[in-house]
Amino acid sequence: MSKHYASIAFTDDVRTVQSEHGSDGFYGRKVAAGTASPGADPLTDDEKDYLIERDGFFLASVSETGWPYVQFRGGKPGFIHSIDDHTIGWADFRGNLQYVSTGNVSGDDRVAIIALDYANQRRLKIFGHARIVTVEEDPELVKSLTDDTYDAVIERAVLVTVEAYDWNCPQHITPRYTIAELESALSPLRDQLTTLQAENARLREQLANSQR
Description:
Layout: H1 5-9, H2 12-21, H3 24-35, H4 45-52, E1 56-62, E2 68-74, E3 81-84, E4 87-93, H5 100-107, E5 110-117, E6 122-134, H6 139-144, E7 154-167, H7 179-210
Helix pairs in contact: 2-3
């Protein structure tokens, strides 16, 4: 848990519930430490390396009516870029043209991100402020976030200034694997199967020849 995460996440209502369950003393000290230290928490190499390996994440924004909205953002691993120690960004691909997240952050730039590594049961949560950058505003930035090998229409870039983050408990994350993650385990099995099939064919031929 980064220094300021608790001071953002643990509101008075949250701390009331923590008090009811006996965890307010531990987390209260983290709230106090974060409140006493101004400024955003910098990303370390651990967070940067983790994010660049992800092929998707969940993005939460808040509408002007107060309703939260969660959307999945995906792409090839590497589509999430660490711009600097306080900023991440990605090229925003054309979707169903609802623009709910884009509209929400134009009114309230606060967002939350959850990036999951299902295979290794890891989860990173991020609080930040999002900013939309169009191609017309900064074509070089959008280009720097674009993967030319990925077949998608880029409409804009999204930059998120990170305020705080937390590596969440791995409990209850069901392990799931992408095709790429399975390939390293399946490839040797395919090779072994090919070898066994060839050996089986050779033995059958030897047996057939011996019976003539």
